[in-house]
Design a protein that fits this description.
The chain has 324 residues and is α+β, with helices and mostly antiparallel strands. It folds into 4 domains: 3-77, Arc Repressor Mutant, subunit A (Orthogonal Bundle); 89-130, no CATH class; 141-215, SH3 type barrels; 240-314, no CATH class. It has 9 helices and 12 strands. It has a 5-stranded antiparallel β-sheet with strand order 7-6-5-4-8. Strands 10-11-9-12 form a 4-stranded antiparallel β-sheet. Strand 2 (65-69) and strand 3 (72-77) form a beta hairpin. Pfam families: HTH_PafC (PF19187), WCX (PF25583), WYL (PF13280). It comes from Micromonospora pisi. Residues 9-122 form the PafC HTH domain. Keywords: Proteasome. Residues 144-208 form the WYL domain.
């Protein structure tokens, strides 16, 4: 049995184990193992895992608890898992829709596992699974379909693209390779003739596109990105920025890959790589007083100068029109 399949089966067994034991306080482990169709050793391993499961906080009084009397077990705290999992009609339909959408997502891995799960839920949902539902992918689905069509037809594209890191719009001729979804966003991976390299273009930042008559011909040296760790993968050659972050800005450590996070009194010192300092300047200014730049000095000066210019602009009184 594959690891993913075994994990899924174990999760289903754990979800039903607590209500089963609640209904049979003091049951012998051997009897429970026979009822559940597992070995006694597997049952003991499941119980050990349940001991570290529970409600957020995961402290005393939050985790599932049980008492043993020889070879007998009794659940003493169920953490709310007091009945077998039963989906409401709305929940079942939501799962069917989500899995269907996931199965159609470009570049998705483990499609077989998704289709097996979908088949099981559709079977359990019965006629409900055939309810008419309109599903739309995030972003501009027409844009994504047009990009997928260019890939299928093997045609080059001329695009107008907005680069957020530099806050600029440019025109490029590209050779599309594939469309994929990463982190809920659609990307076109293509050979950029201007950069002479493979680039990722966010579909929602392509302002215009024209399919050319010439075929897409990525050169032999074109190498696809490894996106297993996400779109942005920091490297040592990128600028390293260190910020002093207040409590309200700590969320950035969950959304951006950081090289270092350490306490500094009531604040945190956070170091992360950025594509360029212009992006970092706009990013820091958007966070307001929750963040102070520690280094590099160039970024410190850029943020200070732009903040001062903004304050000066507010200090100039607005012109008063005639008659007021």
């Amino acid at each position: 049995m594959s690891g993913s399949r075994a994990s899924a089966d174990r999760l289903a067994r754990l979800l039903n184990l607590v209500p089963y034991l609640l209904a049979r306080p003091g049951i012998e482990l051997a009897e429970a193992a026979t009822d559940l169709g597992v070995s006694e050793r597997q049952l003991r391993e499941d119980l050990e895992l349940l001991w570290v499961c529970g409600l957020p906080g995961y402290g005393p009084g939050d985790l599932i608890d049980m008492a043993f009397d020889g070879d007998r077990v009794t659940i003493t705290y169920d953490a709310g898992i007091d009945r077998p999992l039963r989906l409401t009609p709305d929940e079942a339909l939501a799962l069917v829709v989500a899995l269907r959408m996931l199965a159609e997502t470009p570049g998705i891995a483990n499609r077989d596992a998704i289709e097996r799960a979908l088949a099981k839920i559709e079977d359990a949902a019965g006629d409900l699974a055939d309810a008419p539902v309109e599903v739309r992918m995030p972003g501009d689905s027409d844009q994504v379909e047009a990009l997928q069509g260019a890939v299928r037809r093997g045609r080059a594209l001329r695009i107008t693209y907005y680069t957020a890191a530099r806050d600029e719009t440019s025109e490029r001729t590209i050779d599309p390779i594939r469309v994929l979804m990463v982190g809920g966003r659609a990307y076109l991976e293509a050979w950029c003739r201007r950069a002479e390299a493979v680039r990722l273009f966010r579909a929602d930042r392509i302002d215009a596109q024209t399919e050319l008559d010439e075929p897409a011909m990525a050169p032999p040296q074109a190498r696809l990105h490894d996106l297993s760790a996400g779109v942005f993968q920091p490297s040592p050659d990128l600028p390293l920025v260190t910020l002093r972050v207040g409590r309200g800005g700590r969320w950035i450590t969950e959304y951006y890959p950081c090289e270092r996070v350490e306490p500094d009194g009531e604040q945190w010192l956070v170091s992360l790589r950025v594509t360029d300092l212009d992006w970092a300047r706009r990013f820091v200014l958007g966070l307001g007083p929750e963040v102070t730049v520690v280094s590099p000095i160039d970024l410190v000066e850029q943020v200070r100068d732009q903040a001062a210019a903004a304050l000066d602009a507010y200090a100039v009184p607005a012109p008063v029109s005639a008659g007021h």
